[in-house]
Amino acid sequence: MQIKFTETVLRDANQSLIATRMPFEEFAPILETLNKAGYYSLECWGGATFDSCLRYLNEDPWERLRKIRKACPDVKLQMLLRGQNLLGYKHYPDDAVRLFVRKSVENGINILRIFDALNDLRNIEVAVDEALKCGAEVQGTICYTISPIHNLESYVETAKGLKKLGVQSICIKDMAGIMSPKAAYETVKAIKEAVNMPVVLHTHSTTGLGFMTLLKAVEAGCDVIDTAISCFSGGTSQPATETMDYVLREYGYETGLDTACLTKINDFFKPYRNECLKSGLLNPVVMATATDALTYQIPGGMLSNLVAQLTAQGKLDKLDEVLAETPRVRADLGYPPLVTPMSQMVGVQATSNVLQGKYKNISKEIKAYIKGEYGRAPGKISDELTKLVLGSEKPLTCRFADTLEPIVPASRKKLKGIAKGDEDVLSYIAFPALAENFFEKRAEKEKNTFTYSVKLIKEDK
User: What helix, strand, coil percent values describe the chain, rounded to 5?
Assistant: First the structure.
């Protein structure tokens, strides 16, 4: 039997360990080797990469994707898409979702892993439909969590719903590394029996369960696993690629991976990992095993960002209190899975509760969630919060995107003479202020480059 590997070093490992701060030039020289290493896919885009490119790296995320595509013509490129949220933290109109999906595929994406933070399938229908129309492979995603209202039966029903939408495979997304080996075996087996489709498992090493969980998932029939090259694995990242390759080969599985390439890839990233440790970009806290996450259910990216935020405020000593407050906030909100954007929203609210007092300040995102703008809450939202936010109002019952007017035509008009194409328009729609700032810097750089070129030509004459 063959088991396929998705390598995460360019996206989730990067996001989980160093808050998505790896610039393109750091990994550009190893792309050729990544291309021929035998991976099923490279997860290289989506998630927080788009935000980080514009906010911190001064990179065009679309150009980054095109460069990866050019350097990796033989391996499938994969992205993580937050359904109606795209790559942002709110819902966007359907026209923006369809255009974003279409441009993602045109610029090089082969596989879209599409999820909704609440497992509300209404919020991924449009993205799935457009991806299928574009000829992409769609991984419908189940966000895994543990709560009084999430169980094997609920996950099987979600899988059946995903199959009805037409997805080609189903990903179980364990963003906090809390899925036990037993749960992995039972969940994969039940989903495979219910829908008879390829199943992918995504987990993290946060709690120390990752390797065992992946092994039991494979034994249950899992087809693809997510791993990270070893020097960017462990802690809040994924289990190590080389380790899983070694173990599965011993069990008689075919992996298709080239071990010499894996060694070359790991040797390439080691110096950069060491630089990140030295600079503090990679905090040793996120590299350790944190069994408390079995209680807190904090995803890797969320933990690294919490550490960064509290450090910036000089409040890192409050981390344990924030972690303890997180499951209480989550329960008050009806047990949403802690995945973007819910993880950030719950984390920010838990931090606020610790630093300012319980619900003394309720974020606008939490208010929107309680109003129903993110979809159906999995469980009952606490009466206290409902009253604080809604008063006597009623939450939305329809899909929030149905209340939104098209946004693409107006955005194109606003950016006339500035945007170089619809990719720029979509960057603006997702992150207006960040995109505008990037466009200004780009224009200034192009102006300076042109002036310098003219100067050289005159001197040459």
Answer: 55, 10, 35
Average pLDDT, the chain: 94
CA distances for 192 relative to 36, 107, 256, angstroms: 30, 32, 23
Summarize pLDDT for 277-325 with one digit per residue, the tens: 999 999 898 898 988 888 877 776 677 678 878 888 899 999 999 999 9
**Rounded Cα–Cα distance for residues 43 and 79 (Å):** 6
Return the ∠ at Cα 434 (arms to 433 and 440), rounded to 5°.
90
Matching residue, tokens 């408390």: 292
Phi, psi dihedral angles at 224 (to 5 degrees): -135, 140
| Cα–Cα distance, 62 to 438 (Å, whole number) | 13
Size of the chain in residues: 461
Nearest CA to 14 out of 59, 37, 45 is that of 45
Are the C-beta atoms of 343 and 85 separated by less than 8 Å?
A: no
Is the model's pTM score more than 0.85?
yes
Cα angle 433-437-438, degrees, rounded to a multiple of 5: 115
**3-state SS, residue 224:** strand
**141: β partners:** 171
Query: Whose CA is closest to 143, among 335, 371, 368, 430?
Result: 335
Q: What is the rounded CA–CA span in Å between residue 264 and residue 266?
A: 6
Determine the Cα angle at 115 with ends 110 and 120, to 5°.
145
**Cβ neighbours of residue 125 under 8 Å, at least 6 residues apart?**
165
DSSP letter, residue 382:
P
As a whole number of angstroms, the distance between CA 307 and CA 300 comes to 11
Structure tokens at 193: 């029996």
Going by C-beta distance under 8 Å and a sequence separation of 6 or more, which residues neighbour residue 413? Answer: none
Q: Measured between alpha carbons, how far apart are the two ends of the chain, in Å?
A: 67
Q: What tokens were used for 324?
A: 């303890």
Mean pLDDT of 261-268: 98
Rounded distance, CA 88 to CA 47, Å? 9
418 CB burial (10 A radius; 0-12, 13-18, 19+): middle
Q: Which of 224-233, 249-258, 382-391 is least confident?
A: 382-391
Bridging pattern class, strands 4-7 and 76-81: unpaired
